[in-house]
Amino acid sequence: MRRQGRGQGQRQGQGQGQGQGRSASPHGTPHGGKRQVELTVERIGGRGDGLATLDGRPVFVPQTVPGDRVRVRVEGERAGGLAAEVLELIEPGPERVEAPCGLFGRCGGCALQHLDDTSYARLKRGQVATALSRAGLGDVPVGEVLRTAPATRRRATFAAKRAGGRVVLGFNERQSAWIVDVADCLVVAPAILAVLEPLRAVLDAVLADGPPLDVSVTALDGGLDVLVTGGAEPGLAAREAWAAFADAADLGRLSWRAQERSPVEPLAHRRPLAARFGAVAVPVPPGVFLQPSAEGEAALVAAALAALEGCGHVVDLFAGAGTFTFPLALASRVHAVEGDEAAFGALAAAARGVPAVSAQRRDLFRDPLTAAELHRFDGLLFDPPRAGAAAQAAEIAGSRVPVVVGVSCNPGTFARDARTLVDGGYALEAVTPVDQFLWSSHVELVAVFRK
Fold this sequence. Notes:
Elements: E1 3-4, E2 21-22, E3 29-31, E4 34-40, E5 43-44, E6 50-54, E7 57-61, E8 69-78, E9 81-91, H1 117-134, E10 146-147, E11 155-163, E12 166-172, E13 179-181, H2 190-193, H3 196-206, E14 213-220, E15 223-229, H4 236-248, E16 253-257, E17 265-269, E18 275-277, E19 280-282, H5 294-307, E20 313-317, H6 325-328, E21 333-338, H7 341-351, E22 357-361, H8 371-374, E23 379-382, H9 390-397, E24 403-408, H10 411-423, E25 427-435, E26 444-450
Parallel strand pairs: 7-9, 10-25, 15-16, 20-21, 20-23, 21-22, 23-24
Antiparallel strand pairs: 1-9, 2-4, 3-4, 4-8, 5-6, 6-7, 8-9, 11-12, 11-14, 12-13, 14-15, 16-17, 18-19, 24-26, 25-26
Helix pairs in contact: 1-10, 3-4, 9-10
């Protein structure tokens, strides 16, 4: 069985390939100065690429699954191994399925649509188990993956650029600045997809030739929140066009900023918007972090509430705008700590109406709560960014807090921090993977520690 494949750029990956590489000739076949070889893919790496071995080195082969036999062109060095472009799928592996999206292989949003459902779930769970094992925690039970459904992503960031006299709006190709034009997506919520065509029209009216800009769309209580990042500062005509777009698309709010850390300027604010956490509607600023789906958030919150049940005084570290704070406050006093100015502002404003919640702004990377400060709490939750919470974990490890819940979007940094807590006397009881980033190589988790 022979199939023609088109190799694409790949995300940066980590991991050691274990497959057996087989050259098309003893030295491979040169092609434009680059070597062609046949390889058999043995496993999928941490970033979603297939991994094989050539001359004792790992080879990253995009859009492949274990058992695929492929002819590839070796493109060069990558992450301690070799990057390859697929030229031909010679024989498919048993775990391969037809990708449901016609843009798969070009669009960089999904990496694993070609993997059968059972293998996909096993891979996500395995990412967590492998990270724990590397930290010497391989005996910790890892639960089955809690999975969200397609079309539930409530936030998405699109790239836009005027090219060749027309506007291209969509997602970047994998490992590339090229933008794949998108009109539909199996992952994103329908309410967000519905705004793409009117968005494309206003971009066609206001967007000049130049670097791409980003358009983030978030579905909140009250409607869609659209934040444009980049491009020239809108003049009067552009502001009028943007305001007309907000009306026509029935947006809740539309804003612009020059770059990610720049001040946000309102272009249209048609009604109040909020994120609902537990019983509290938190008015959130443009661009504030939210869990990618309501369903995934609910799974994480439910696990945290179950673990912290009976705790009278809980500290919520890296609290954001209150994702866990306000649900926990239904049964406990909660002290919420957050360093980001915008997120803390939203959290503190909402906390003024909830007597059980106190809020503190503090950079937990540079100034973590000390073990002595933590002694007064009988429950703790920490939900850091992808970099993890190395400094804060060291303080937690030295504390007397009896129950700790960890939430993470990066199994690797979580495992590092978990090792710190275990070395400090905590028992890591269980870890549950949560898949909110459907068909991507990312996985989240929630874990319970006790001392």
